[in-house]
Design goal:
Blueprint: H1 7-11, H2 14-25, H3 27-34, H4 39-51, H5 57-74, H6 81-93, H7 95-109, H8 112-117, H9 122-129, H10 134-143, H11 146-155, H12 161-170, H13 176-187, H14 204-212, H15 216-229, H16 231-238, H17 252-261, H18 264-271, H19 276-284, H20 288-300, H21 306-325
Helix pairs in contact: 2-3, 2-4, 2-5, 6-7, 9-11, 10-11, 10-12, 11-14, 12-14, 12-15, 14-16, 15-16, 18-21
Length: 339
């Protein structure tokens, strides 16, 4: 085996390398591994498995070898599983992000009913909770990943959304008894046991993350309603919402990667409503010819509806978040943390 890593192998993401490893295990063993993963991880790795092509035997051998070395180097006698997990996550993600994920892992150990929601269609979840008290809905949304929570929120009646998102923002942990009761309610729809576990779910940051995934029209209407009832809360949430102009905080390498993923016509539309500083940052990370063409197109393009500009900006933000989730780029600004 060559000591020099294959270029294609070096370019593989962690998800793709995991997919290669699972494909080498065989159906039964791979299924056992996937059973221990969440819905989003299964979807991400499954997509990578479906897209894999041109994997050399040498690359497969190197992935397996690296995995074996990692297991050997990271397994140590005398360190408990919880402490090992905490150290690994803190080193990989940072203290704050790791704490949030550990919280969700702990709660997932004893909330099988709630965890089952992550595998459900967002419309089905909204139907399941729409007649519950807004506080119950808020806890459910805080438990879900932000993008899934936003979809569920979008299917709820418009007059319910402001109160629910305000409750997410003001949620300061969940008592074990309340969580156990909620888990019991949901598990009646499925099967299993509920034992309850306290959690740091909710808060203005959780509300902002959900809002980040809403359509522009829904976001505007929602924030207007919250502002009418609680200006201070609305201000706290908005301070954490990652908006298009925050992309100026992305480093040059990340911006170049993002621009490769964004369709030219959507970028042109989005920049009609962008600050000059962000436009210059984008021009700087394009070839001179491409930047000149984009400048000319911006000058030549006539008036555009604000709703169209906002929709294009939201689309680009969603691409940026997916790249950030995959670890390809790093986002920052307005208190939001990404890895």
């Amino acid at each position: 085996m060559s000591d020099r890593p294959d270029r294609r192998e070096a370019a593989r993401s962690g998800t793709e390398r995991a997919a290669i490893l699972l494909l080498t295990l065989g159906e039964s063993e791979a299924a056992q591994v996937l059973k221990h993963m969440g819905a989003k991880e299964v979807q991400r790795i499954g997509t990578a498995m479906a897209k894999l092509a041109n994997v050399s035997l040498e690359e497969v051998q190197n992935v397996i070898s690296d995995f074996a070395l990692t297991v050997e180097s990271q397994t140590s006698v005398g360190v408990g599983a919880d402490e090992f997990l905490r150290r690994v996550l803190v080193e990989a993600l940072g203290q704050d992000k790791a704490a949030s994920i550990i919280d969700r892992i702990n709660i997932g150990r004893s909330t099988k009913g709630l965890d089952a929601l992550k595998w459900m269609d967002s419309r089905a979840i909204s139907e399941l909770v729409r007649h519950e008290h807004p506080q119950i809905i808020a806890i459910v949304l805080a438990y879900l990943d932000a993008d899934q929570a936003a979809e569920v929120l979008g299917h709820l009646p418009a007059n319910v959304r402001p109160e629910v998102i305000a409750r997410v923002a003001t949620l300061d942990g969940v008592q074990p008894s309340a969580l156990t009761e909620l888990d019991d309610i949901i598990e009646k729809q499925f099967a299993g046991k509920a034992s309850g576990k306290t959690s740091g779910l909710g808060g203005a940051k959780a509300a902002a993350e959900i809002i980040n995934f809403l359509e522009p029209s829904q976001e505007s209407a929602l924030m207007e309603q919250i502002e009418k009832t609680d200006e201070a809360l609305a201000a706290r949430i908005l301070d954490l919402v990652f908006v298009f102009d925050n992309l100026i905080d992305v480093d040059d390498r990340g911006m170049q990667e993002l621009l490769r993923q964004v369709p030219a016509e959507r970028l042109l539309l989005a920049l009609k409503g962008a600050e000059d500083a962000l436009k210059e940052k984008i021009f700087k990370n394009m070839s001179q010819r491409a930047a000149e063409m984009l400048r000319d197109d911006l000058e030549a393009k006539g008036p555009v509806r604000l709703s169209e500009v906002e929709a294009a900006q939201k689309e680009i933000l969603q691409i940026a978040r997916k790249l950030a989730e995959a670890g390809t780029i790093s986002l920052g600004g307005k208190g939001e943390e990404y890895v």
